## 1
Amino acid sequence: MPNLVLASASPRRLDLLRQIGIVPGVVDPADMDETPLKGELPAQHAARLAEAKARAVAARHPDCFVLAADTVVGCGRRILPKAEDDKTARRCLKLLSGRKHRVHGGIALLAPDGKLRTRLVTSHVTFKCLDHSEEAAYLASGEWHGKAGGYAIQGLAAAYVRELSGSYSNVVGLALFETAQLLKGAGVHGE
């Protein structure tokens, strides 16, 4: 799909798109500050970042459709960070243990004519109460590195998910149904 640009550095998003027959012609990540704004709620943050990424990358590819997304794990009003170190991952796991949280997926598709199409998808995830050995094993795995909320549902953390309501692919990194509908509505079709 030569006229589709994926504005993401996430290999998971590219794999998810390929799963539904969408292969972007170009992958061009938007390198931007993802710090939440003061008072910004998790859902607002996901939607804002998806749009901002699409607009930033569209400036470099004016004749293409640009697809961007952002995944935000929210626990109450709190935005959980991408875990880049053991301390952050441990904090996230302790916060999620035994609780329900939300995973917000912002999706933005910017057309060459400047028309913006967006979706916001929310999935509800409930973790079991993690005991010390489960927490230690997950931290030792390193799977959490770079993941929103400090976990990857498609990996070892699947054993900790008691309940999931909503889009599984959204929790992985891109809500496929909603993305496919956005692309179809814009006239961008897969294989």
## 2
Amino acid sequence: MNYTVLRTPLNYDGTQLQSLFAYKNFGLMGDSVSVFRGSCRVEQDEMVDMEDVLAKDWIYSEDMLHFIVEHFDMDLEKTIIRQRLLIASIKEELEKLGVRTLSRSGDDLYEVDNKLSVSISTLSPVSTMIHCGLNVSNKNTPIPTIGLANLKVQDVLGFGENVARHYCDEVLSMRLARCKVRGVS
């Protein structure tokens, strides 16, 4: 599994959650994590989460750190578990920076009632995908939020790269764990 960090801003509107995103845009073939920073505005017609659609919610942030993860298997339940692994990896990387005020609820991170993340898993025709966005700024968000700036994260893309490396290492470690055990009868 590989990752890439885009150094130029890329705004997220939901259309980026498509199969082969990393390959088409960055030449990164196979299971991957793409990390980039930019605004986020997802309107109803690009929403993947039907709960949000039915509630007529929308997602907006002036500045977010985005992760798009793609795995080339078709097991959505496994991908939801991987999504939670990604969220746990983010929390662990923040803890390394001294942030101890966050809690995880399902696939999101909070400081009390202020939400840091948005996250969704879905199927594409050839893969499963995860989008996770972390507010960098919490200005003008439609719900109470907190941002990485509030948490004193200075190097946002460097932080994103550390999360991507951590996640890729975890996925590799799980794959290797399958290879070291013998079957039982």
